[in-house]
Amino acid sequence: MNQPANEVQNIRKIITASSVGTLIEWYDFYIFGSLATVIASQFFPKTNPTAALLSTLATFAAGFIVRPFGALVFGRLGDLIGRKYTFLLTLIIMGSSTFAIGLVPGYQTIGFAAPIIVLVLRLLQGLALGGEYGGAATYVAEHAPPNRRGYFTSWIQTTATLGLFLSLGIILITRHSLDADRIKSIAKFDDWGWRIPFLVSIFLVIVSVYIRLKMKESPLYAKLKTEGKTSVNPLKESFTHRSNLKMVLLALFGATMGQGVVWYTGQFYAQSFIENICKVEYDQSRTIFLWAILFATPFFVVFGNWSDKVGRKWIMLVGMLLAVITYRPLFGKLFSIADEKIKTEVADEKQINTSIKPIAIGGNSLRTIGTKYFFDDGTVLTETRTDTVYADAGKTTQKPAIKVSKLLPSKDYWMMVGIVFVMILYVTMVYGPIAAFLVELFPTKIRYTSMSLPYHIGNGIFGGLTPFIALLLTTIYTGDKLVGLYYSMIVAGLCFLIGALYLGNRIDRDVSD
Amino acid sequence: MNVLKRIAGILWIVAGPLAIYYLVRTAIEEINKKPVIDTKIQWAVFVIVFIPIAIGIMIFGVYAIKGQYDHLPDRSADIAD
Asked: What are the φ/ψ torsions at residue A371 (nearest 5 degrees)?
């Protein structure tokens, strides 16, 4: 079916306007997570228990409790007053919160007010994100022609991953461009440069707000409004009417919970695994993801487009099944690539550098021993051991701080890029068609509310908790480095079973009802 | 297929209480093991967010047993009580 040129141009404008804003929202949300360590040192000092408590709340509450709550608040608003103004509002809340985080003085300057302000701003970020996605996906889907809904909404689906890409990229660039000397540049970044990625966001938001202001209301929603058929109480209709609640539950247990864990395992847990378990050097671990995301992102559109031809169900479910079957071998391979125990050390090249700096207290000194181990395949392992040399000769440091980082040779580096690419490919399978799938499941008058909640429970709770639960499992069951994967594998496996049994593969051509 | 959908409903109903039991038991064990504020908040969040979800899967199971998923609605008009 050929579309008139002006219709194609119009839908392209709509996709661009919606996607840019959603991408910025994801970017805003992820920079906080990516800079969690620096932010903790600036606002939440571990030495102060209340500040540490606020830090934990900021981490957990924003991502997991507030997001579904935001879905309810803004979903309801989107069904009551319209898509356009609601997701314009979420963008403004997100943009201003992010910019404000970049301006908040540190704990050293204003004390307890600092972590409290940051916590509130982070909660606002979570709230805004909860409202954004459903609006953007609904808005694009309600403009898209019936036979190309998967293709057009898949552009919205690229934004979460591209937001992550943008956040990693901007942080990496800023970290290395504040001084000609690499170490000084990183020190400046940790001191004040981390604010730049937050402040930059405001320019992106202004542009995006301007574009969105010029957009028109969704035609399907506008028609409903003209006819006076909008919902009076979307929350009640979505979650207390059995016929709709059963679809909300089906969307959650048969699609979004599996999608959430696959998304977060491939793009977040894998990142933490490469950095903290494989001990790959900071820049390398980040650029591995940048390359993998760059290569995999087009597949969101490929699978979205394909879902218009073969249906949404099996593309998503096959993505989940592949994840369940291959996660252990893929993560096992990541671990073995970086495992120095199976490499041969070139003992002659070993380098040891020791530096001692006096500490102001009691004539003690801080000793840093940096040891570089070279391996025959080109891997370089750097071990930095820091301890205190006491003036009192009989006293020794109980537990020296040891940091290990590995610089991989080119072959191993690209192999890791390849493995992460495969994991993100699974993400594109489960995530590419899901917006069209969710839109087609619910009626126009309560669509924003009904699709936002299962999406944010699946993505925010099941997915967002993945890195924490995986880490927790590794601390409970210490014998297996891959034990953290069982959470994702069980959730994705269960979702596959429910989806395979209960979901239909029919593409709903008419979403105007 | 519809018979299988209904029988599987029993599994989802059972899965809810089992998940709650496992979650609460693990939370108590882990908090007792390390009774610091971080552990308490972390497990409190897990329990608070996962209990309603576990109840949700039980409701899903009840709907499945009652045959609510035997035929999915073709039109939005079918989604009306």
From this structure: -120, 130
B18 chain-A contacts, CB cut-off 8 A: none
Residues of chain B with Cβ-Cβ distance to A513 below 8 Å are 75-77
Other beta carbons within 10 angstroms of residue A328's beta carbon come to 14
CA angle in degrees (0–180, nearest 5) for A63-A68-A71:
120
A357: β partners: A366
Q: Which two tokens stand for residue A399?
A: 């537990």
B chain contacts of residue A444, beta-carbon cutoff 8 Å = 76
Cα first-last separation, chain A: 22
Which H or E element spans position A354? strand A351-358
- For the entire predicted model, the pTM comes to 0.91
What string of DSSP letters covers A21-84?
A: HHHHHHHHHHHHHHTHHHHHHHH--TTSHHHHHHHHHHHHIIIIIHHHHHHHHHHHHHHHH-HH
- Give me the phi and psi of A227, to 5 degrees please: -80, -5
Is the model more confident about B34 or about A405?
A: A405
CB-side neighbour CA atoms (13 Å) of A171: 25
The stretch A366-373 carries a mean pLDDT of 92
**CA separation for the pair A136, A27 (Å, rounded):** 15
Residues A290, A168 contacting (CB under 8 angstroms) = yes
Taking a C-beta distance cutoff of 8 angstroms, is the pair A145, A1 a contact? yes
The sign one gets for the Cα dihedral A248, A251, A257, A263 is negative
The CA distance from A165 to A159, in Å, is 9
Q: What percent of chain A has pLDDT over 70?
A: 95
Chain B contact for A57 (CB, 8 A cutoff) = yes
Report whether pLDDT(B56) > 80: yes
- Cβ distance A243 to B78 less than 8 Å, yes or no, reads yes
Residue A373 is inside which H or E element, if any?
Answer: strand A365-374
**Residue A378 Cα to chain centre, angstroms:** 32
Query: Is residue A367 within 8 Å of residue A400, measured between CB atoms?
Result: no
Give me the phi and psi of A385, to 5 degrees please: -110, 120
Q: What is the DSSP letter of B34?
A: S
Written as six digits, the tokens of A160 are 């979460």
Best B25, B45, B71, B81 member to test A by mutation, with max A CBs in 10 Å, is B45
Task: Identify the weakest region by mean pLDDT among A152-161, A196-205, A430-439, A501-510.
Answer: A501-510
Q: Can you tell me the ipTM of this complex?
A: 0.94
A104 backbone dihedrals φ, ψ, rounded to 5°? -65, 125
